[in-house]
Amino acid sequence: MTGARLGLRENWFQFSLFSIITFLVGMTIGVERVALPPLARERFAITSVLYTVSFLSAFGLVKSLMNLVSGRLSDHRGRKVLLVAGWLFAVPYALLIIFAANWWYVLAANALLGVNQALTWTMSVSSMIDLVGPKSRGFAVGVNESAGYVGVGIGGIAAGILVTRYGLRPVPYLLVLAVVAVGLAASLFLAKETLPWTRIEGKPQDGPHPQLSEIFKYMSLRDRSMMSACHAGMINKFLDSLVAAFLPLYLLRLGIGPAEIGAIAGTYALVWGIGQLAGGAIADRFGRRLPIVSGTFTIGVGLVVFLVADSPFAFASGAVLMGLGMALVYPNLITVVGDTASPAWRGSALGVYRLWRDGGYALGPAFFGVVAAVFGLSGALWTGSGIAVVSGIALLAWLEESHPDLRSKPRRWEIEPWLIHLTPPDRAGN
Question: Among the CATH numbers 1.10.3130.10, 1.20.1250.20, 3.40.50.150, 3.30.450.20, which is that of 12-194+210-424?
Answer without folding.
Answer: 1.20.1250.20
